[in-house]
Amino acid sequence: MSLNLDQTLSWSNAHAAAKPEAAAELAMLNDLQGNILKGHGRDYTSNLFIAFDPQKKDAARRFAGSVADDVNAALDQLLKAQAYRKSGVGGGTFVAFMLSSTGYDALGRQDARPADPAFQEGMKTRQLNDPPVNAWEPHFAGEIHAMILIGHDDKATRDAERDKMVARINSTGGAVKLLNPAFGEDGNALRNAAGNGIEHFGYVDGRSQPLALQEDVDGEKNGKGGISDWDPSIHLRQLLVPCPGGKHDVSFGSYFVFRKLEQNVRGFKTREEQLSRQLEETYGLAANSVDVGASVVGRFENGMPVTMSPVEGTIPAEGPSNNFNFADDAAGRKCPFAGHIRKSNPRTDTADSKTHLMARRGIPYGTRTDDPNDDRLDNKPTGNVGLLFMAFQSDLAKQFEFTQTKWVNNANFRNSGKPGAPGALIDPATGAALDPPNPATGIDPVIGQPAGQSGQRWPVEYGKRLSDGRGEEDFSGFVIMRGGEYFFAPSITFLKSMR
Predict the structure, then answer these.
(1) Is-cis flag, bond preceding 450, omega within 30?
(2) Which contiguous run of DSSP H or E holds residue 127?
(3) Which residue blocks in 112-213 are alpha helix, DSSP H?
(4) Dihedrals φ, ψ of 96, to 5°?
(5) Which of 499, 494, 375, 456 is nearest to 114 (CA)?
(6) Which residues form the DyP dimeric alpha+beta barrel domain (predicted)?
(7) By C-alpha distance, which of 309, 298, 310, 305 is closest to 320?
């Protein structure tokens, strides 16, 4: 059997055996872990990080093989999601199992380790401008061999399923050790009044995803605003990698990035107010005429892109759209070049931008007693909340690392400076450089590292004028990376082979 990776996949056609290639597609979907091609959708998750004792390889392998019976296959996940849409009956507990490069070593299965150099070296060794490893949370600073993801729609059930898995870990006689017994990586979805998922700063999150399933592309095209300005479809090749230890020709897995990102919500919201007032005073603007938070994120709190606002300060009432690009905002006067969504996904600004995108599967962590959208400062947390960033891809260097180093952390992407400068933006009508006050655009104000780099410029007259840097306009430092690792989600047949 062979599988065409240079296309999107219609899983429903595969399930209906509508085409000759359906047999290969079904075999792949039954051996591929869920959550890769489509998010599992549970509101409550737990990430358990574990280490194996290399002196007890047989027992550690048996444990990994036993978890294979709990892991959800992609087809199973998709069928349960379809049933939920029709009946309202939830899909139950979701489980996934990931291995790090050192995890393959500890299990004595170097023969089955995927070949990606970044994966084999591990996140700690890569040049990502991250905080030093000795500043990471302790369980991330040492070797992590594997991660188990558990999800459920009910918090109490998530907790119970997590605790049962911990008991299994503790029953291995030391062959498997839990590294994070405090469960600081339990995910708890946040939602706004409209029911959309938000992150702790209060903005709709996760709306812009690359889509590898044709059903999702069709849903975007026909029911969620269209794909005329931005087609989110990607080929399977952007997510899937042959699994060296799989038992079929169509055994695939995917590289997985995990990063714990702590958010200082009060600091972020305070800086929003400070910078708004500063811009209004410096440029003689009316009070409350500058929405710095929307410029920083690139979307209003309700998820609508700032480029779709008819005038500054007017928030379209429609839900969060994904059918947009920045073609009519070449100078960054609506969505600045430093805006988070433009830094992390420049869309048609960059010809090959889609090839660098990942399938993001993040979820907020921590608990809140306040309303994230209540416009208060005094009740906002300064820590112990944030985002568990998770993403699947087929090439760590080309996708996650490129996005983080070439876009997010790069104060010169995109460069709006002198004619002829790398990345300079040129007015096609006149040949003149657009808005050249500073050749730098600054780092991503949300997840860019390190903090404090200059160059960010913010709209002070929507669509007409940017700030010119007269004052201190830096917006950064409110998200701190606390640790993480690179993993691989192997095929289910590989996991079962270790029993």
Answers:
(1) yes
(2) none
(3) 117-121, 138-141, 155-170
(4) -135, 155
(5) 494
(6) 33-171
(7) 305
- Assigned token pair, 35: 């959550």
- Tell me how far apart the alpha carbons of residues 358 and 389 are, in angstroms, rounded to a whole number: 11
User: Is residue 374 in some structural domain?
Assistant: no
The total of other beta-carbon atoms located within 10 Å of residue 436's CB is 15
Is 352 an active-site residue?
A: no
344 near 322, Cβ under 8 Å? no
Within 155-251, strands assigned E span: 176-178, 186-188, 190-191, 197-198, 241-242
**For each of the chain's 499 residues, which pLDDT tens digit applies?**
689 999 999 999 999 998 888 999 999 999 999 999 999 999 999 999 999 999 999 999 999 999 999 999 999 999 999 999 889 888 999 999 999 999 999 999 999 999 999 999 999 999 999 999 999 999 999 999 999 999 999 999 999 999 999 999 999 999 999 999 999 999 999 999 989 999 999 999 988 999 999 999 999 999 878 999 999 999 999 999 999 999 999 999 999 999 999 999 999 999 999 999 999 999 999 998 899 999 999 999 999 999 988 765 566 666 688 999 999 998 899 999 999 999 999 999 988 999 999 999 999 999 999 999 999 999 999 999 999 999 999 999 999 999 999 999 998 887 544 444 444 454 444 555 554 444 578 999 999 998 887 789 999 999 889 998 887 899 999 999 999 999 999 999 999 999 8
Instruction: Kindly state whether residue 412 falls inside one of the protein's structural domains.
Output: no
In-domain check, residue 81: yes
Fill in the amino acid letter for 433: A
Handedness of CA 267, 273, 277, 283 (dihedral sign): positive
Structural domain containing residue 96 = 30-192+206-261+485-496
Q: Around 266, how many Cα atoms within 13 Å sit in the side-chain half-sphere?
A: 10
Query: What is each CA distance from 133 to 20, 124, 154, 181, in whole angstroms?
Result: 50, 7, 34, 20
Domain presence at residue 269: no
The two tokens of residue 236 are 């399977």
User: pLDDT, tens digit, for every residue of 367-396?
Assistant: 999 999 999 999 999 999 999 999 999 999
> How many whole angstroms separate alpha carbon 220 and alpha carbon 208?
11
Q: Which two tokens stand for residue 385?
A: 């909340």
CA 197 to CA 105: how far, in whole Å? 38
Closest CA to 247 of 496, 419, 423: 496
Q: Which residues contact 116 (CB under 8 A, 6 or more apart)?
A: 241, 255, 395, 396, 397
| Chain centre to alpha carbon of residue 473 | 27
Cα separation, 120 vs 141, in Å, equals 17
Q: What is the number of domains present in the chain?
A: 1
Query: Which residue out of 53, 76, 105, 218 is catalytically annotated?
Result: 218
Give the whole-angstrom CA distance, residue 448 versus residue 479: 8
Q: What is the enclosing helix (H) or strand (E) of 107?
A: none
